[in-house]
Amino acid sequence: MPAPPRPDQPGPEALETADAAYRHVLGHFCTGVTVITGVDGADGDGGRPAGFACQAFAALSLTPPLVLFCPGKSSRTWPAIAGSGYFCVNVLAAGQQDIARRFGVSGADKFAGLSWTPSSSGAPVLSGALTWVECAVEAVHDAGDHYLVVGRVTELGPCRPDRPLLFYRGRYAAMDAGSGTGPPEVVDTLLAWPRHADWL
Fold first, then answer.
1. Using CA atoms, how far apart are residues 91 and 107, in angstroms rounded to an integer?
2. pTM score, whole prediction
């Protein structure tokens, strides 16, 4: 018979409620949608393409140029990519919901019938992506039920004149066509890019 929870520890129902509240509140933080790609470093045939959808991606440092993303510890794709030492962040454009869904589930060949070209490291650059960032794995940190992966930017792709695919409150969305006009903003308390660099 399991021991009852200590008075200073929340019980299962309280934890379940806390998880739901966490998802609800954090779901109000709008993010972009990316697909992290690479080659299976353990594959002896030159590396098969691998990839997974990831919304936990952000710029980290300008000097040196670093980015971060957070794959779940249950991911079977991230260990395969990590073995090669390189990855590519594909920033999805509005209208690429099907790509996000394809890479958001496990199993099957996610690249079947999909158009892509290899980056310098061989990581897939998905056709139609808004832009892409190739990185070398700099560090991997334990972070709860995820890993925090730091990547050093090695190559930057061109930026398409399109709108980004967004994720908000559990649904895919896109910016209104009329938004985002006027000169770029620079806020000193955020990660500000000199000369309004627009590679993100």
1. 22
2. 0.80
